[in-house]
TrEMBL record:
<dbReference type="InterPro" id="IPR020867">
    <property type="entry name" value="THF_DH/CycHdrlase_CS"/>
</dbReference>
<dbReference type="InterPro" id="IPR020630">
    <property type="entry name" value="THF_DH/CycHdrlase_cat_dom"/>
</dbReference>
<comment type="function">
    <text>Catalyzes the oxidation of 5,10-methylenetetrahydrofolate to 5,10-methenyltetrahydrofolate and then the hydrolysis of 5,10-methenyltetrahydrofolate to 10-formyltetrahydrofolate.</text>
</comment>
<comment type="pathway">
    <text>One-carbon metabolism; tetrahydrofolate interconversion.</text>
</comment>
<keyword id="KW-0028">Amino-acid biosynthesis</keyword>
<protein>
    <recommendedName>
        <fullName>Bifunctional protein FolD</fullName>
        <ecNumber>1.5.1.5</ecNumber>
        <ecNumber>3.5.4.9</ecNumber>
    </recommendedName>
</protein>
<dbReference type="InterPro" id="IPR020631">
    <property type="entry name" value="THF_DH/CycHdrlase_NAD-bd_dom"/>
</dbReference>
<dbReference type="GO" id="GO:0004488">
    <property type="term" value="F:methylenetetrahydrofolate dehydrogenase (NADP+) activity"/>
</dbReference>
<comment type="similarity">
    <text>Belongs to the tetrahydrofolate dehydrogenase/cyclohydrolase family.</text>
</comment>
<feature type="domain" description="Tetrahydrofolate dehydrogenase/cyclohydrolase NAD(P)-binding">
    <location>
        <begin position="140"/>
        <end position="284"/>
    </location>
</feature>
<keyword id="KW-0378">Hydrolase</keyword>
<keyword id="KW-0658">Purine biosynthesis</keyword>
<keyword id="KW-0368">Histidine biosynthesis</keyword>
<dbReference type="InterPro" id="IPR046346">
    <property type="entry name" value="Aminoacid_DH-like_N_sf"/>
</dbReference>
<feature type="domain" description="Tetrahydrofolate dehydrogenase/cyclohydrolase catalytic">
    <location>
        <begin position="6"/>
        <end position="121"/>
    </location>
</feature>
<dbReference type="GO" id="GO:0004477">
    <property type="term" value="F:methenyltetrahydrofolate cyclohydrolase activity"/>
</dbReference>
<dbReference type="Pfam" id="PF02882">
    <property type="entry name" value="THF_DHG_CYH_C"/>
</dbReference>
Length: 292
């Protein structure tokens, strides 16, 4: 068997075009332009790349992008003061604080200072609680993108066995909540899970969010399963730096029914979902119907 490749790049381009269309209508009909503020503290090179690409995509979708680059030594009080200003600014509908923050800053405190209605990353405890209880919330972008690809591929996910490897607050746990919300039978695996291969082999849907290059071999994949590879790992191969996922793509693609590639799978969907969340936040703030 050769797996169908789930083209996250093409899917994300469709989502972005839909968002851009909606933004254009918001402007024409209501004179409103959604705005996303991204806050970066320090000079982590990977974070700088992410922030730049988020800003560029925001502008391409017709939204306003506000970038706040703060010195690595910025105090917690100053960062909280900036968040307070952004919370109060009616032109800002979404606020994203790029993680990880420098060690002297308490990320939980900072994230929970964001107005939950503007928390487009969905990391505020209010949004986590709303998602966990099946209420309307801001849903974290990476798991939301994974769910959209799964729904697009399968239609209903009801009754499927889903295994999520990784239990982080930003990917693993919200992913599991979303799959549960779609009536999957969900297992969350992590570094202390026994017989991980055996657990993975039960999965109709296998989501890998670990951060270990190609740690999931093809023989952990159930024949015909759908594999969503969230991992982004930089490794040296053949004298070059290449990006690989948490799944051995070549091995898994021989067994799976469908699989996301790295790059070009989950990554592009994450940014598309950030734009969609900003649009949703803007519509909610203005009492307008939300995009589907
Ligand atoms: P974290 O480091 O926060 O979490 C990793 C999880 O993997 C932990 O729960 C950890 O378990 C588990 N784990 C580690 N080693 C093993 C192992 N040997 N067996 C089983 N489980 C293990 O990572 P994130 O969730 O933030 O990110 C995961 C990956 O996804 C990374 O590669 C990251 O770059 C990528 N990512 C990609 C995004 C995208 O847009 N495509 C967005 C966000 C992340 P334990 O809790 O027990 O330590």
């Amino acid at each position: 068997m050769t797996a169908k490749i789930i083209d996250g790049k093409a899917f994300a381009a469709r989502v972005r075009a839909e968002v851009a269309g909606h933004v254009a209508r918001l402007k024409a009909d209501h004179g409103i332009t959604p705005g996303l503020a991204v806050v970066l503290v320090g000079e982590d090179p990977a974070s700088e790349v992410y922030v730049r690409s988020k800003g560029k995509s925001t502008v391409e979708a017709g939204m306003n992008s506000y970038e706040h680059k703060l010195d690595a030594a910025t105090s917690e009080a100053d960062l909280l003061a900036l968040i307070g200003k952004l919370n109060a600014d009616p032109a800002v509908h979404g606020i994203l604080v790029q993680l990880p923050l420098p060690k002297h800053l308490d990320s939980d405190l900072v994230i929970n200072a964001i107005d939950p209605a503007k928390d487009v990353d969905g990391f505020h405890i209010s949004n986590v609680g709303l998602l966990g209880t099946g209420q309307k919330s801001m849903v974290p972008c990476t798991p939301l993108g994974c769910l959209m690809m799964l729904r697009d591929h399968h239609g209903s996910l009801a009754g499927m066995d889903a295994v999520v490897v990784g239990r982080s607050n930003i990917v693993g746990k919200p992913m599991a909540q979303l799959l549960l919300g779609d009536s999957c039978t969900v297992t969350i695996a992590h570094s202390r899970t026994k017989d991980l291969g055996e657990v993975c082999r039960r999965a109709d849907i296998l989501v890998a969010a670990v951060g270990r290059p190609e740690m999931i071999p093809g023989d952990w994949v159930k024949p015909g399963a759908t594999v969503i590879d969230v991992g982004i790992n930089r490794i040296e191969r053949g004298g070059k730096t290449v990006l690989v996922g948490d799944v051995d793509f070549a091995g898994a693609a021989k067994v799976a029914g469908a699989i996301t590639p790295v790059p070009g799978g989950v990554g592009p969907m994450t940014i598309a979902c950030l734009l969609a969340n900003t649009l949703t936040a803007c519509c909610r703030a203005n009492g307008l119907p939300e995009p589907e």
